[in-house]
Design goal:
Length: 265
Amino acid sequence: MMEQFLMLCGSFRQELQDEIIVNDMVTEIAGEVPRMDKALRLVKARERIASLKQQGLPPEFTVSLDTRMRGTEFIAEECKVMDSKKLPLWLTIRNSQPGGRSIKIIFKTGDDLKQDQLTLQLIRIMDKIWLDNGLDLRMKPYRVLSTADQAGMLEVVLDSETTSDIHTKFGGGAIGAFNKKSIQNYIAKWNTDPESFANAKENFIRSCAGYAVATYCLGIGDRHSGNIMLTKSGHLFHIDFGHFLGNFKSKFGIKRGNLSSVKYL
């Protein structure tokens, strides 16, 4: 089927080829990052990203995560290596549309993103069932795509922060999680008029309920305020689904099981 498709898809074949070239280039850099000297990691990674044009980066390419995204080059000075265990790359791509917003994605190696992809597909199915029955829980599952074994890309949800950071910034520092108004303060900061504030609160209440049910039904483990996020418009969402269906991490012999979103808010 693949052979027939490639024979008959016409000019789309070149688009797919360019996409694969870009993915291979980024995968190679992401694989090199963990072996780079820690002190020079960011500088070296940006140098490698900046050199992609000389290595045959297509003049225009689609982003596999969403083929509606078209870029012309990587903006090396805005790319970075993230601090999490697998050292994923935060990539900024210049939009091919003049005046268009830069495209931002996270590229990760060393993790099987097929599990995240499956989990988010199931959450979308739940959301569709709820919507078909007249229940809008304002769910905003982000996009994930596994591009190879142990490699793939994730959508960057702009204008959002982890609830951990929100509690710190809007709740009074290290003990902000005990401040019952930290989330409210965050929402009020970005929604100053009564109508938008009321809408953001409604977004928060509904999405919090939706993800509490979804994460419970799917047995999502390893939940903490570092992988629960909130947008400026009040939409709560979960990230990082490495442990699901009861496959939880253990610490000191105790399983870090599935806790609802509400506990951390």
